Amino acid sequence: MARVLYDLYVLRSFCTGVELGSFARAADKLGRSTSAISAQLKKLEAQCGTPLLRKSGRGLVLTDAGETLRAYAHRLLELNDQAVAAVSGSELRGLVRLGLQEDLGESVLPAVLGRFSRAHPRVRIEATVARSDELRERFALGQFELALLWDVGMDLSCLRGEHVMRLPLQWIGPASAQACDAPWWRRLAEGSPAEEPLPLVLLDAPCPLREIVTAALQRQGTAWRYAFNSASLTALWAATAAGLGLSVRTPFGLPGHVRPLDPAALGLPALPSMDLMLGRGRGSADPCVERLAGILVETIREHMGLA
């Protein structure tokens, strides 16, 4: 049996079309004709010996084989791109200053630094993990080439960059059944009338989430109190896991000892979403900065299963 060798150009067309939800849009993005993309897909299905797409309403969805191939195709394309970057960018030198918040630093920074350093060992990265207000102020002063910032209605007029993703704010509670045995939690879970204000576990002020959460509770007519405040996100997770109160964050980087809650089931108000932005400062056209920006966005989307 002849060995099948997949064409990376064909795999890129396949993945791009699935990602964009349209192979016509994929053709525009890749600078090819729609007929050329269709011919590539036919070639790919012939190599696989099974359909990769099936009709669903007016569109197309992946078959089981298509899902499997897509996962491998992403890995093959990523490895190819890393090899190209490592060879062509092996002589890159310089410094990139990156700012990001604690939840992003813990969940994606190790993978980003590993991928980048393997491809560009002569480029130095200075990463600063700080609170949102500090990052925004320092970015405005030109102290970062790149900064990952959550946009929750703040003034980001200084920001020049790209939208990475939108994620919902979620009520967060303890994952442990033992921690859920607190009286306030039992009353909340049972839908009993509140005998005391809802305990909140939030970051110290200034924190935009404090205003969002308390305003939502006030509109609902729910009394609340600050049960635990800290400048550390790790301390926040510890207090939430221990059952001291409820916290609010996005689903990004949640540790295993806490869990998102269903607000409707607990009588809690719905919360808005937040946009994650990648700000680009002066010198962002530098090849080192551009390469790190690309790896950052790829890693974040992979972390959330969006790649």
Automatic annotation (TrEMBL):
Q: Does the keyword DNA-binding apply?
A: yes
Which SUPFAM superfamilies has this protein been placed in? Answer: Periplasmic binding protein-like II, Winged helix' DNA-binding domain
State the InterPro entries in the record.
Answer: LTTR, LysR_HTH_N, LysR_subst-bd, WH-like_DNA-bd_sf, WH_DNA-bd_sf
List GO molecular-function terms, semicolon-separated.
DNA binding; DNA-binding transcription factor activity
Q: Describe the location of the HTH lysR-type domain by residue ranges.
A: 6-63
Q: Domain of life, per the record? A: Bacteria
This protein's UniProt keywords: DNA-binding, Transcription, Transcription regulation
Has the keyword Hydrolase been applied to this entry?
no
Concerning its family, UniProt says:
Belongs to the LysR transcriptional regulatory family.
Q: Which PANTHER family match?
A: HTH-TYPE TRANSCRIPTIONAL REGULATOR LRHA-RELATED (PTHR30579:SF7), TRANSCRIPTIONAL REGULATOR (PTHR30579)
Task: State what protein this is by name.
Answer: LysR family transcriptional regulator
**What organism is recorded for this protein?**
Xylophilus rhododendri
